[in-house]
Amino acid sequence: xxxxxxxxxxxxxxxxxxxxxxxxxxxxxxxxxxxxxxxxxxxxxxxxxxxxxxxxxxxxxxxxxxxxxxxxxxxx
Length: 76
What we know:
By secondary structure, the chain is mostly helical. Helix content is 75%, strand content 0%. The N and C termini lie far apart (24 Å).
């Protein structure tokens, strides 16, 4: 889990360093169980084309954390 988290942070930093702090806020909120705040950040980043945000948004919907499990939204 920690290794995946580290790779995601590295990937997000390499792809879009300007939005890294927003991604970090989303990850921190997710880790603390504040899924609505995390999803807010991940949705916004995903809509801007941020790959890490898209991935994390998909995980939130796939796992149903704070939202209804929605495979359609998880995939798109």
